[in-house]
Specification:
This protein has one helix and six strands. It is mainly beta and 119 residues long. Strand 2 and strand 3 form a beta hairpin.
Length: 119
């Protein structure tokens, strides 16, 4: 099951590190707000290992497309759900002249003509 979320980075949480039976691990969590829904939702995603390095390069407000896996586990008769990012791509890269997800920068002063409609 392939799931994807597209949205803006809202917050990047502190990096977590530790060691286990398989060696050292790195975990980086980040929160995105979906942009392609009528009622946007905030989702906290976790990136492990080399994917944590990708999250370090993100900034609040960046538009991203995240491939995720959702997994739940039980501990002491309570259920915990983890949203793990296995693929993280920036949308538009901030260098593109086209706004991602049909967005339009109102009042943007880029020196271009403002006669163009956003659709």
């Amino acid at each position: 099951m392939a799931l994807e979320l597209t949205g803006k980075v809202v917050k990047i949480l502190p990096e977590q590190t530790g060691s286990g039976k398989n060696g050292n691990w790195v975990k980086q969590e980040f929160v995105i707000e979906t942009t392609n829904e009528q009622y946007p939702k905030k989702v906290c995603c976790s990136a492990w290992g080399d994917k944590a390095g990708i999250v370090k390069n993100l900034k609040s407000g960046d538009e991203v497309k995240v491939g995720i896996n959702i997994e739940s586990r039980e501990y002491n008769e309570r259920w915990y759900t983890d949203v793990r990012a296995w693929k993280i791509d920036t949308v538009g890269g901030g260098q593109s002249s086209d706004e991602p997800s049909g967005g339009y920068a109102f009042g943007a002063d880029s020196g271009e003509s403002t006669d163009d409609l956003p659709f």
